[in-house]
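Field log, afternoon session.

UNIT: design team B
ACTIVITY: writing a sequence onto a fixed backbone
BACKBONE:
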């Protein structure tokens, strides 16, 4: 995934791809429809919990469901009588409080007092919806505590829950930027060349001062804070590769320069021929023939943990274990396979693509994991068809376009093997990096728990079934994939 924290870049790609399909199937009545991906939820932060509320678009205005909004904060009982909607909300340790509205009307009651909405109340599929803009006021009236809505960012804060951060630059060698938080945080972390992005989905982080802080430092260029789509982000930029380390029990995140990654292992040259005492002159080496190499790329690594599958199991560990199983299963079928990383190191997306293209594999397989959903998703690149020759010059951003047909054949073969082992699976398109930059047939495989128990994602039996399916699918399609000269 990510690609990085369900969720990582992969989780966003799934949502985007499925939303395009669902949008065509939705029946839009009275101007009510689901919002576009990335704009369809409100994140609520309270002293007890943080949660997300799906939003509805009504004539271009976001609406929130009252039950979804209030249920995490207390006990809710909602009933519909014709077009009248009555909801009883009981806060912890309190007495029931009533909310009444009528579908298609803008007037109602909250706690027995008249209340006028800025737009009509909406009833749909047995649920009642109010405009997003009034959610903070309704909650304030029911809980008797202050609530603050950041409407454009889709974030609602109940009580004094906002958490601020501090910045402290230490000009060491290399420089270190210390991000301090009042309580432990667990953001998802994505790295790009000269950039680290921290995404806070459940923490009520808000700006503690200027949203954009520049630095005149040889390594750290600046920090930018933004909030949007129900989350907050801190984007740290620099002049070289950066990495993030946690300290002080998650209350401090240290941004500093990343160590240079090790070079990709190259195939060892053949041993020299034994000396011939009658002919001491060296013999010319014969050029190496074509070979079939599968390059396996376990996503994330190092400080980029990917998704938190469980509190103690990061995505980076799940996919590394799976990658080793896939490599073993391919070897059992006589197929040479290498790992882009075989340890817990951080590799940028550009490095993954560059090293893969330099190795000239016959096939590239990226591995991801998710703690939501079920079964296995097999992805190929979401790129428009292009008349490109694999032997010619390939644009970096769309290099994969020249190999889409072969990539689709591999994905179909792997999916067929998953199906034969009765593993839930789906074949999808996604705009993924570094897959778009790979100049070879390429697929991405994301595993989710086989059933309801998320711990099963790390079970040897389940991973072995997935690894066997991938290896068998590659073996079945091997004859269609061209061997490549090293």
């Amino acid at each position: 995934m990510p690609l990085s924290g369900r969720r990582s870049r992969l989780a966003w790609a799934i949502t985007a791809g499925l939303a395009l399909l669902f949008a065509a199937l939705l029946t839009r009545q009275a101007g009510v429809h689901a919002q576009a991906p990335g704009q369809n939820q409100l994140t609520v932060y309270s002293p007890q919990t943080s949660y997300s509320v799906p939003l509805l678009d009504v004539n271009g205005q976001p609406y929130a469901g009252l039950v979804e909004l209030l249920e995490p904060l207390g006990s809710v009982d909602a009933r519909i009588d014709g077009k009248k909607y009555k909801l009883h909300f009981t806060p912890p340790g309190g007495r029931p409080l009533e909310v009444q509205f009528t579908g298609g009307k803008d007037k109602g009651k909250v706690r027995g007092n008249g209340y006028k909405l800025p737009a009509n109340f909406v009833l749909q599929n047995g649920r009642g919806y109010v405009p997003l803009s009034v959610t903070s006021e309704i909650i304030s009236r029911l809980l008797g505590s202050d609530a603050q809505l950041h409407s454009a960012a889709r974030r609602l804060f109940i009580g004094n829950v906002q958490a601020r951060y501090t910045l402290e630059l230490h000009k060491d060698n290399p420089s270190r930027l210390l991000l301090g938080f009042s309580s432990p945080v667990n953001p998802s972390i994505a790295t790009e060349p000269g950039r680290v992005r921290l995404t806070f989905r459940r923490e009520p982080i808000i700006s503690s001062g200027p949203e954009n802080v520049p630095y005149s430092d040889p390594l750290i260029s600046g920090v930018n804070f933004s909030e949007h789509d129900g989350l907050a982000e801190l984007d740290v930029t620099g002049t070289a590769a950066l990495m993030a380390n946690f300290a002080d029990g998650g209350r401090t995140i240290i941004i500093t320069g990343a160590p240079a990654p090790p070079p990709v292992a190259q195939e060892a040259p053949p041993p020299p021929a034994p000396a011939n005492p009658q002919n001491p002159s060296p013999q010319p080496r014969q050029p190496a023939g074509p070979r079939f190499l599968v390059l396996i790329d376990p996503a994330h690594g190092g400080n980029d943990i990917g998704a938190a599958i469980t509190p103690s199991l990061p995505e980076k560990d799940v996919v590394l274990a799976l990658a080793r199983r896939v490599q073993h299963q391919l070897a059992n079928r006589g197929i040479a396979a290498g790992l882009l990383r075989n340890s817990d190191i951080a590799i940028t997306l550009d490095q993954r693509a560059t090293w893969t293209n330099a190795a000239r594999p016959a096939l590239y397989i990226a591995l991801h994991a998710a703690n939501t959903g079920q079964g296995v998703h097999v992805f190929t690149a979401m790129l428009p068809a292009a008349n490109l020759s694999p032997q010619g010059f390939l644009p970096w951003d769309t290099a994969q376009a020249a190999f889409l047909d072969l990539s689709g054949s591999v994905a179909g073969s792997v999916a067929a093997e998953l199906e034969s082992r009765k593993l839930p699976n789906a074949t999808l398109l996604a705009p993924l990096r570094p897959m778009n930059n790979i100049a070879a047939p390429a697929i991405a495989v994301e595993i989710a728990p086989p059933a309801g128990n998320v711990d099963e994602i790390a079970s040897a039996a389940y991973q072995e079934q997935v690894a066997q399916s991938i290896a068998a699918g590659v073996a079945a399609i091997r004859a269609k994939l061209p061997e490549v000269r090293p």
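LOG NOTE: Confidence is low (pLDDT under 50) at residues 1-39, 261-270.
NEXT ACTIVITY: expression trials, pending approval
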